[in-house]
């Protein structure tokens, strides 16, 4: 438990941030008040659009130009940040208050070395001159647990893994030992083991430095793992505030109970497969990447998929789990021939897809479809939703009128209104865009659906809706579903069978009850042990009325 000091480090008092006229609601944040103490981790939770990141950006003075605090105070050590000019705020950012952003690749300059980017924080604030700066950079890289700091200091961001980049961003935030650290969804896109490492790092730093930490998240497992206190936000309003034990196990507000009720419980799916007929039979699949090579460098060979075999039956959900780099997404690409297969067989409907040319595979592509991870990047922003969904069938020879009629049916099937047909992707939320992606995949009436991290970036309530939708569609349409994920709770809940990938190989396979309740491989046990908040049981919380 963190040591919490008597006087607040940060006090937000009756803060309201107005939205431009004509939107769904007048305020991004309305009359919120809470304190954050030194030595405390305060988790701010809520769905997208709840205002949790907006309040964090207001503290940093990073609100968009069209958004201004309408009233209220943000008191840092008794000083109202909203009353300060930009020059004064600039002097405080990084030195007194620092922020760790959600996407480290976007937060880092791709053409600057890691050492230069961390050193820039010190240079701007005129701290650690000369050789002291270089020593401080190496000290920070070592402090956040990065291997071989002397090499990483000269590396560029693209050379590092996602977890390593996030550690670099944390090192930048810690460079001048700020009193307040704001972490905005810093572990959302990370696999469970990397996430566990980052959470442990933040806890260690907070304890050693006595900082106040504001941790913005939609993951209640993370809240259960690290929070001292929890603030719950809904549509810009603070609906609940209390210590972590109370909010997680005895929430007072119906919205909090609804959020917790949507958290994947991680219990194994009950019931067997709907059908024993094999739809897809993968045998000894191999995919190798070769990089480097030249006069002074050896070629680097990576076995992304190494002798992988599995079967998927009609009406069955097969989960493929593992860390980033384990090969699970590469399997998905191989199944859809989005990458060349180096060996093995992919048997579907009497054909070996691995041996087919692109021309031979084209008529069969409609039978194996993918739901992509990012619902923002996978939809063409220049096309209407109707065209996005209907273009596939039209390209396969279906008349436009027939395809459009089917598109309207699919929009209704995935829970969207018919008016969505003529609208553009930017007019929808993340969860709605993922429903559009599902409708697009279903438009070609596939027999196999590959979902690649399709719910990892969604709020828990939206995630629950999409998972329920997939289960319903699978039952109604008798589709085989391959569900690729790093979220073990989700895999346990929706899959009939699970394979665990590690460095391109299957290390364990079986039903969820065996995989998650009695794992046989050390790597599987490590994955399960790394699940944040594993000891917390969301099913014990009373459901919302």
Automatic annotation (TrEMBL):
Keywords assigned by UniProt, alphabetized: ATP-binding, Cell inner membrane, Cell membrane, Membrane, Nucleotide-binding, Transport
GO molecular function: ATP binding
Keyword Plastid among record annotations: no
Annotated ABC transporter domain residues: 10-260, 280-528
UniProt xrefs under PANTHER family: D,D-DIPEPTIDE TRANSPORT ATP-BINDING PROTEIN DDPF-RELATED, TRANSPORT ATP-BINDING PROTEIN
Family recorded in the similarity comment: Belongs to the ABC transporter superfamily.
Annotated protein name in UniProt: Glutathione import ATP-binding protein GsiA
Annotated source species: Cupriavidus pampae
């Amino acid at each position: 438990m963190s040591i919490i000091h008597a006087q607040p480090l940060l006090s937000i008092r009756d803060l309201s941030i107005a939205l431009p006229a004509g939107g769904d609601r007048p305020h991004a944040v309305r009359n919120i008040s809470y304190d954050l103490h030194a030595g405390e981790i305060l988790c701010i939770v809520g769905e997208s659009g709840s205002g949790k990141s907006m309040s964090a950006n207001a503290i940093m003075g990073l609100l968009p130009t069209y958004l201004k605090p309408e009233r209220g105070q943000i008191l840092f050590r008794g000083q109202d940040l909203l009353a300060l000019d930009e020059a004064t705020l600039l002097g405080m950012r990084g030195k007194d208050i620092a922020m760790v952003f959600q996407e480290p690749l976007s937060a880092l300059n791709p053409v600057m070395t890691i050492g230069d980017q961390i050193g820039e924080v010190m240079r701007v604030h005129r701290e650690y001159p000369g050789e002291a700066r270089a020593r401080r950079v190496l000290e920070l890289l070592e402090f956040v647990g990065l291997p071989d700091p002397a090499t990483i200091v000269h590396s560029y961001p693209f050379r590092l893994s996602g977890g390593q980049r996030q550690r670099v961003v944390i090192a930048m935030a810690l460079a001048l030992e700020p009193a307040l650290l704001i972490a905005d969804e810093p572990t959302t896109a990370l696999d469970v083991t990397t996430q566990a490492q980052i959470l442990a790092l933040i806890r260690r730093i907070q304890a050693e430095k006595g900082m106040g930490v504001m941790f913005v998240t939609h993951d209640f497992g993370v809240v259960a793992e690290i929070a001292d206190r929890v603030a719950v936000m809904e549509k810009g309003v603070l609906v609940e505030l209390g210590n972590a034990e109370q909010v997680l196990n005895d929430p007072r507000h119906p919205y909090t109970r609804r959020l917790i009720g949507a958290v994947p419980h991680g219990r194994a799916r009950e019931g067997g497969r709907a059908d024993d007929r094999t739809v897809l039979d993968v045998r000894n699949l191999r995919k190798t990447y070769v990089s480097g090579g030249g006069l002074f460098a050896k070629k680097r060979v990576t076995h992304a998929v190494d002798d992988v075999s599995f079967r998927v039956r009609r009406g069955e959900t097969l989960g493929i789990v593992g860390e980033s780099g384990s090969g699970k997404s590469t399997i998905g690409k191989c199944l859809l021939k989005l990458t060349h297969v180096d060996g093995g067989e992919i048997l579907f409907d009497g054909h070996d897809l691995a041996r087919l040319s692109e021309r031979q595979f084209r008529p069969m592509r409609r039978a194996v479809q993918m739901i992509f991870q990012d619902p923002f990047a996978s939809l063409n922003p220049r096309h209407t939703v109707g065209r996005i969904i209907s273009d596939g069938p039209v390209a396969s020879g279906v008349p436009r009128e027939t395809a459009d009629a089917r598109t309207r049916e699919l929009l209704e099937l995935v829970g969207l209104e018919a008016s969505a047909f003529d609208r553009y992707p930017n007019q929808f939320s993340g969860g709605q865009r993922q429903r559009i992606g599902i409708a697009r995949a279903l438009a070609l009436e596939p027999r196999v659906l590959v979902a690649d991290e399709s719910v990892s970036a969604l709020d828990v309530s939206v995630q629950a809706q999409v998972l329920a939708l997939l289960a319903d569609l699978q039952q109604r349409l008798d589709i085989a579903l391959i569900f690729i994920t790093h979220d073990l709770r989700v895999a346990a809940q929706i899959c009939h069978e699970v394979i665990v990938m590690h460095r391109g190989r299957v290390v364990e396979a079986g039903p969820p009850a065996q995989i998650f309740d009695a794992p046989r491989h050390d790597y599987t046990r490590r994955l399960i042990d790394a699940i944040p908040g594993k000891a917390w049981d969301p099913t014990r919380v009373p459901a919302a009325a």
